[in-house]
Write a structure and sequence with these properties.
Blueprint (H helix, E strand, L loop, with lengths): L1 E10 L2 E10 L3 E4 L27 H4 L5 H8 L4 E13 L17 E12 L2 E11 L3 H8 L6 H5 L6 E10 L2 E10 L2 E10 H4 L3
GO molecular function: chorismate lyase activity
Keywords: Cytoplasm, Lyase, Ubiquinone biosynthesis
Protein name: Chorismate lyase
Amino acid sequence: MHAEMAVWSFSGPVVTLRAFSLSASATMMQTSAVTGPESHSLQRLHWRSEPPASGMPRQWLQDTGSLTAKLQTFTGGQLRVRVLAEGRCRAAPGHPRPPGSRTLRQLPGLYWQRKVVLHAGATNLIRAVTLVPLPQQRLIRRLRLLGSKPLGAFLFAQPGLQRLQMDFAALDWGLARRSWFRIGRDEIVLVEVFLNSLLEQL
């Protein structure tokens, strides 16, 4: 039996993610520094309400529509999803609550996460982490059925979808965008890292 868990630590605007795997035979802790696009963790991100100066076009970063649909058009329909991990994670208090949020108060307790890479051929374009409060089991069950399908196709098909807030953070190997969504009574945090390999093609 295998399980994927992670520890999210928040201290003001600083975010740390430590990921580790649990199996019946062994327990292995992995803490990855953000040193390149192959890192599976997002460490020490300083979030801001405006995108930091970069070569990434703002019409990509601040577009409130579906990034999946935008990438499908950009890649000529070649966009694919590779799932890196799914499972429970623990979030520590201290993460700012977005305006209008009902359930994502200070992100204490257990959450369900999904980590993926969006790619076209051999080129990785986006790394993404979805975070859902564990009590939202009905939504989590639906997200588990996605498999290798993109989250965006599901998310933007939901009636009454609201994006509560967007924040941005700079990385050496890309630029991260954090979005807060509400679907009815449920809420989702989505972190998308626009990789430099995408920027080079824009």
